[in-house]
């Protein structure tokens, strides 16, 4: 009955205060001053203090014995900016990391990689031999046809020395769609490079420095670049820092031996040279949801405990949630459910993805379907390919039922243009009604959430 009343209340059109709260939080969290909120770096620390302050102001209790913040050791495995360079023209052309080019360090071992260049352009069928050469490909930014990743792997299979990716236009993000720029781990051992295929992204200016106007002379058709050999010199380094999870507790009553955790990661990709990756949708949108929940529910009287958990380290391997589950503030067996929120502010205004839809399904998914139907919100249920891509998956691996709210990818994903002014705040306020309804329902039902056999409940 309580959930029905909540659904009816939030179906009314007056969601302006919630919308305003979302805009305020997202604008701050995705501002340039937070420098992209990279785990263990300055901007992430500012964000952590902001979250702590907001939880305090809303009257939510600290979730950890030491307070609102749980710090954990993190080893950062990055590139030595001074020693990692791209050189051509017998040393007369020297390109600078993070200014002229970026490097996918995860796929590149230390060392030197030198060879001539084959310009492949936008072509996806490589009639030009690339064996032992750098293959220069053009990224049009289009989602049609093979992905950049597929094209790079094909070049590797054809024996290329490495790949150079060039944007089609100056306006394209330097590193749209790229992974986090540094690797991180909870131990001092860096990740093994199981295969090495050096892959760099160049600016248009850097491309011109390397090959001049030769591409224009060939009208974009494949050709062997004349008179140029490129040498990539890679040097890596590791150092220890600390990441931070931030969590608040709203204490339950008769069922307080059971705990529901609502999570969102607040870290993002940080900076690359002068380029700031603000991460408004990814994931200031989900983080802001935690703060709105704290404001709306801190003075409620739920039956179960509620922990609002903002984790860092998601972008570099779900590290924060992994550490949290290894060092939980309550016994692991008392955590009965996780509701995870990651990227909910873009794409269709009345649609939100629910994961899992058909794999590892729990009553959380089933209740989400029922509540979404009552609220008139459309659920996208074809996103299970992302099931292992956010923090809820660590809870599932620990035997805890979980559900993940996600709006799917968009053109600004992991790019410089994921700004606050591209967020659909009306959508955020609308999706929030569904998330809060599920949270309140999960906190107050007699039976806790549990796994079910999806084949017994739906016909996928």
Number of strands: 20
The span between the termini is 30 Å
What is the averaged pLDDT score? 91
Could you describe the largest sheet, including whether it forms a barrel? 10 strands, mixed
Predict the CATH topology of the largest domain: Aminopeptidase
Q: Please estimate the helix content.
A: 25-40%
Q: Please give the radius of gyration in angstroms.
A: 24 Å
Overall form: elongated
Known CATH architecture of the largest domain: 3-Layer(aba) Sandwich
Low-confidence stretches: 1-5, 7-13, 455-460
Structural class: alpha/beta
Helix count, DSSP H or I runs of 4 or more residues: 11
- Name the CATH homologous superfamily of the largest domain: Zn peptidases
Residues in β-strands, percent? 25-35%
How many separate domains? 2
The CATH class assignment of the largest domain is Alpha Beta
Please give a structural write-up:
This protein is α/β, with parallel strands linked by helices. It has two domains: 294 residues, Aminopeptidase (3-Layer(aba) Sandwich), CATH 3.40.630.10; 154 residues, Glucose Oxidase, domain 1, CATH 3.50.30.30. The protein has eleven helices and 20 strands. The strands form three sheets. Strands 1, 2, 9, 12, 13, 16, 17, 18, 19 and 20 form a ten-stranded mixed β-sheet that branches. An eight-stranded mixed β-sheet has the order 4-3-11-6-7-8-10-5, with helices on both faces. It has a two-stranded antiparallel ribbon with strand order 14-15. The longest helix has 20 residues. The N terminus and C terminus are likely disordered.
